[in-house]
Amino acid sequence: MKRLVLILGFMTSFASFAQAQDQEFRKLFLGLGLGANMVGDETFPYFQLNFGYRLSPKSQLALEFGMGSVTAKQIGSFTYGGGGHTYTDGKINYTYNLFAPSLSWSYFLGDVSKSVLWRVGPSIGVLQVTGTDSYTPTSKDGAEITGIPDPQSISKTAGVFGAHVGMTWNFARRWFLDLEYRLSANTGNLKFEERTVSIGTQNAPIDAKEFGAICNKITIGVGWRFGKP
């Protein structure tokens, strides 16, 4: 939630700054994208928010916030009681969440007056993976189930550097579509040690997990340029 508030606050400030621009061409833009980020052998469905600035007709900078999450995996089960009954449908799940802010620079190839442009460039950033346990259900017949522990999160962080190739289609005066592929390498492996979570007398093991040092990311998105009409 704190990350979301920070991003929304930044977006509001960015939009205010954009409206104050008076340039020959629209330098500032905002983009939203969807795709997949493959970190080692794990694929994260991916959402991306971009804030960009055209340094010149041929180059641009983009500040990107990417987030993703893999489907929760059941790692165990638990029993619980309520209303004189014992239930056995308790599930212990484990989820990995990804947060990937980065800064990229792009150089546009060919004639920048064309509606379809190719671009290439480098990027640097941070890759954070967080593992979190969760328990379902947390209530039965309207009553809270007692004894369920609070979720515990463990985060691993690495620096990231990479290169990208992309295609931008300016299909309207302000609107554009963007397709990008990025190959990145982490400065260190993101390794989670084997551990155990407990609920009452019931234990569930969490297998060790190591995310590879190579990332392959593909995104497609839509953007809006600020500036004079």
What is shown here, in short?
This protein has one helix spanning 2-19, and strands spanning 28-39, 42-56, 59-69, 73-82, 85-109, 116-136, 139-140, 143-144, 153-169, 175-186, 190-192, 195-199, 202-206, 209-211, 214-225.
Which terms summarize this structure?
elongated; 229 residues; 8-stranded antiparallel β-barrel; 8% helix; 68% strand; mainly beta
Overall description:
Helices cover 8% and strands 68% of the residues. The protein contains one helix and 15 strands. Strands 1-2-3-5-6-9-10-15 form an eight-stranded antiparallel beta barrel. Strands 7-8 form a two-stranded antiparallel ribbon. A hairpin with a 2-residue loop joins strand 12 and strand 13 (202-206). The longest helix is centred in the N-terminal third of the chain and has 18 residues, at 2-19. The model is unreliable at 14-24 (pLDDT under 50).
Strand and helix layout:
Layout: H1 2-19, E1 28-39, E2 42-56, E3 59-69, E4 73-82, E5 85-109, E6 116-136, E7 139-140, E8 143-144, E9 153-169, E10 175-186, E11 190-192, E12 195-199, E13 202-206, E14 209-211, E15 214-225
Antiparallel strand pairs: 1-2, 1-15, 2-3, 3-5, 4-5, 5-6, 6-9, 7-8, 9-10, 10-15, 11-14, 12-13
- In which range does the helix fraction lie? under 10%
Spatial order of the strands forming the largest sheet:
1-2-3-5-6-9-10-15
H/E series: HEEEEEEEEEEEEEEE
Supply the helix-strand structural class. mainly beta
Total count of helical runs of at least 4 residues:
1
Taking the sheet with the most strands, its summary is:
8 strands, antiparallel, barrel
Strand content: over 45%
What does the radius of gyration come to? 22 Å
Mean residue pLDDT = 87
Which consecutive residue ranges, at least 5 long each, have pLDDT under 50? 14-24
Shape: elongated
